[in-house]
């Protein structure tokens, strides 16, 4: 019985110690609060790799303009008209492989991803189309989703 009493006193003392410690830290925390200026906040954010939304948008616009210029130059250099036929039962992968084989696209998987991102995988129409080499994906997709035969 003496052993049980000693154990209960030990647990009671331990509990009181934990409560007192929490109370002391609650009253006087050791946290240092500091007011930061806007410049300091921006500097710390840049150190962490954060970017302003406006900066990111401007970079994207510059890259898009460069890509458009590059595509226009390649279209002027070599414009070869190719007759392309989409037959019934062909899926997007078959169409992309045929476009790649004819030299109308540079990469099969990037064309498939482009179509999937825009949700047009099932809107490609059966028909015969006159396409030119150097067309961008947007133009190809616009032509291939029209239902009129050319």
Give an overview in words:
It is a single chain. Helices cover 59% and strands 8% of the residues. It contains six helices and two strands; from the N terminus they run H-H-H-E-H-H-E-H. It has three domains: 1-32; 34-77; 79-150, 2-Layer Sandwich (Dna Ligase, domain 1), CATH 3.30.1490.480. With 150 residues, the protein is mainly alpha-helical. The radius of gyration is 34 Å and the shape is elongated. A two-stranded antiparallel ribbon has the order 1-2.
Instruction: Report the principal-axis shape.
Output: elongated
Distance between the termini: 101 Å
Number of helices: 6
Question: Can you tell me the CATH superfamily of the largest domain?
Answer: Endolytic murein transglycosylase
The CATH topology assignment of the largest domain is Dna Ligase, domain 1
Name the average pLDDT: 79
State the share of residues found in helices, binned by percent. 55-70%
**What spatial order of strands do you see in the largest sheet?**
1-2
User: Any guess at the CATH architecture of the largest domain?
Assistant: 2-Layer Sandwich
Question: Can you identify the CATH class of the largest domain?
Answer: Alpha Beta
Radius of gyration: 34 Å
Counted up, domains total 3
Q: Unreliable runs, pLDDT <50, ≥5 residues?
A: 58-62
SS class = mainly alpha
Report the β-strand fraction as a percent range: 5-15%
Number of strands: 2
Name the helix and strand elements from N-terminus to C-terminus, one letter apiece.
HHHEHHEH
Biggest sheet statistics: 2 strands, antiparallel
